[in-house]
């Protein structure tokens, strides 16, 4: 199998395009099917629509199934519009159940129903079973294409089974052992199977200490578990410990990528609009409510400035430093927010860790504030010859940055305690809160020292 690198990528692309233009099916299949599946996907998406139409004629629905499973939903919809129904339904029948379910959960109900009706009976039952689980749980993302073996089998029996069943399984590096009641009894690695004697009994060489996940576990927790133990797959079991399916590491990587994208969307107040495949109108529709809401929060900032209008009229130069106070507060708060949300997402913050991170961010904010206070006080004194004004701005920065760092660290922790995604403590919200806090501190200090300014 060939894996493209930057040196031969264009050469391969040109050879494949030439084969398609000359309608040379044999040459095309030689080049295309030699590629790694990931490169097949990339090459396929770089072809023109007319060339893709030839590809559908040159490769089977079974071969197309792997390409389709690797596409984003938007690109899957585009591809389905180019396929005839018979080819598409045949392709779905050759896909893994978890990939089918991933597509159906986003597809329109009528079309999803039509796909299920055209699946093989056994596959349709497995797909409907997965669709019955709550979204984003272990049960909803597992696949049924696995190889289970009996504890009473011999190594030779299992090897014969593998030769027959391996082509239809998503992963064969782990073989899951079940007892006569269908309960998960152990796990056997392919390595240990190969080095065992043909007449060895499975129950003698299997590992009976199996790490599994319940069917209702959150998909993000499954990802953390797979990462912790460096698994390629993890079995999913029922309350009765019955083996239901497996979750593979490639699916978890996709899920963690999706979770990260969602968190970025939350933090940037652009949830649901981070996908570049979304159109301009759709992106604006998703992002505008956040911006309008933040605009109203911004009016509070304007109100704070209005409360201290008399102070600002007395010392007009105070207004020149408002953007600096607000920007600094927002930047420090967003830094602390990022640290806090990351710690929660990775599971590295426990009860004791919460106090530790708050103390650290508070101290960090104080040190940054102290440095900024010294620098800005000296600059204002040198540039404007006003030491008192420099001290007002400097002390305001010290208190503002210290408090902003604490707010950025604490707010996600409080939200997490309420079982809400801490990413909703987004950057723009933290920035707005710290803007208001910074201005209150700044003008309160300035008003208190107005007589000597």
List keywords for this structure.
453 residues, mainly alpha, Tetracycline Repressor, domain 2, three-stranded mixed β-sheet, 22 helices, elongated
Question: If you had to describe this structure to a student in words, what would you say it looks like?
Answer:
This protein has helices spanning 9-21, 25-32, 37-45, 49-58, 61-69, 73-82, 85-93, 97-104, 109-117, 121-131, 138-141, 155-165, 190-195, 202-205, 219-229, 249-267, 280-307, 309-314, 322-346, 351-384, 387-417, 427-448; strands at residues 148-150, 174-178, 184-189, 213-214, 233-237, 243-248. It has 453 residues and is mainly α. 32% of the residues are buried. It contains 22 helices and six strands. The model has no long low-confidence stretch (mean pLDDT 84). It has three domains: 9-141, Alpha Horseshoe (MgtE N-terminal fold), CATH 1.25.60; 148-258, CBS-domain; 280-452, Tetracycline Repressor, domain 2. Helix 12 links the parallel strand 1 (148-150) and strand 2 (174-178).
Q: Which CATH class of the largest domain applies here? A: Mainly Alpha
Question: Tell me, what's the shape?
Answer: elongated
Query: What's the pLDDT, averaged over the residues?
Result: 84
Provide the CATH superfamily of the largest domain: SLC41 divalent cation transporters, integral membrane domain
CATH fold title of the largest domain: Tetracycline Repressor, domain 2
CATH architecture call of the largest domain: Orthogonal Bundle
Helix content: 55-70%
Radius of gyration: 30 Å
In angstroms, what separates the terminal alpha carbons? 76 Å
Number of domains: 3
Number of alpha- plus pi-helical segments: 22
How would you write the strand order of the largest sheet?
Answer: 1-2-3
Strand percentage lies at 5-15%
Secondary-structure-based class equals: mainly alpha
Query: How would you characterize the largest beta sheet?
Result: 3 strands, mixed
Unreliable spans are none
Report the count of strand segments. 6
- Reading the helices and strands in chain order gives HHHHHHHHHHHEHEEHHEHEEHHHHHHH
